[in-house]
Design a protein that fits this description.
The longest helix has 12 residues. The protein is mainly beta.
Length: 242
């Protein structure tokens, strides 16, 4: 898959945000929801708001951790002791806290939950990487997605949000393509596919190199205007309740 149009100069390295899904005009739409101001690499913040899926790059800062030993961790896609670049399941002020959210959908209007499907991880720069999404407990990992061994999809309830470990096996810049789907009581089966760009480790500064028009956009107040969904969200909620 070709690289997305993610703003290469805007790399988020801190703050609470979710990959969210909303119903708009009878269609599902994946987007980014910032629950708190988002810290940018190099300084500055983006306000808590809703943004297009490609409005910024999600940074995955170090330090990395060593992959645990044991077959239960093979889904990560590298060998025991090798580095894993990750975003945490629990809040850490030194890393973005990224969840998945269906809170903008009304549970009574959906037949069952939503299905989240991993399509691909595409290399933009750096070394090819595996991708995985999972949760951990004293019982070990609960794997939702793995590019190395599967699964390739999981079911997620409507009307909630939750957090996961987002893991990469290499340093680089990657586009991760995800699809969300579900069955609406009025509109039937719906789905949307979007790519989200991640930069891991030492490639965060590479992803933060401004594009030619970025400075002008920032001076013009383009950061705040990248994607103001608030007005559209009112329309979405009205449509969802209809």
């Amino acid at each position: 898959m070709a690289g997305s149009a993610a703003r290469a100069d805007l790399v988020v390295v801190g703050g609470h945000m979710d990959i969210g899904v909303a119903l708009h005009g009878g269609a599902l739409e994946l987007h980014m929801h910032a629950d708190t101001p988002l810290n940018l690499f190099g300084g500055g913040t983006l306000p808590a708001d809703e943004y297009e899926h490609d409005a910024f790059v999600i940074g995955v800062p170090g330090p990395s951790v060593a992959r645990p030993s044991g077959a239960a961790w093979d889904f990560i896609g590298n060998s025991s002791g090798e580095p894993v670049w990750f975003l945490p399941q629990a809040s850490d002020p030194a890393k973005p806290f990224v969840g998945i959210a269906t809170e903008e959908l009304i549970p009574a209007h959906w037949i069952g939950g939503t299905t989240w499907t991993f399509n691909s991880i595409s290399l933009v720069d750096g070394a090819p990487s595996e991708f995985s999404l999972f949760q951990t407990s004293f019982l070990g990992p609960d794997v939702q997605l793995s590019s190395f061994s599967g699964p390739s999809s999981f079911t997620f309830p409507v009307g909630i949000h939750d957090h996961f470990v987002w893991a990469f096996t290499e340093e680089g810049i990657y586009d991760v393509s995800l699809t969300v789907s579900g069955t609406h009581s009025l509109h039937g089966f719906l789905s949307d596919t979007k790519s989200f760009r991640f930069a891991t480790g030492s490639f965060i500064p590479v992803a933060a190199v401004p594009e030619p028009t970025s400075t002008a956009l920032l001076l013009a107040g383009g950061v705040a205007g990248l994607m103001r969904w608030r007005r559209r969200l009112k329309v979405k909620l009205v449509a969802e309740r209809s």
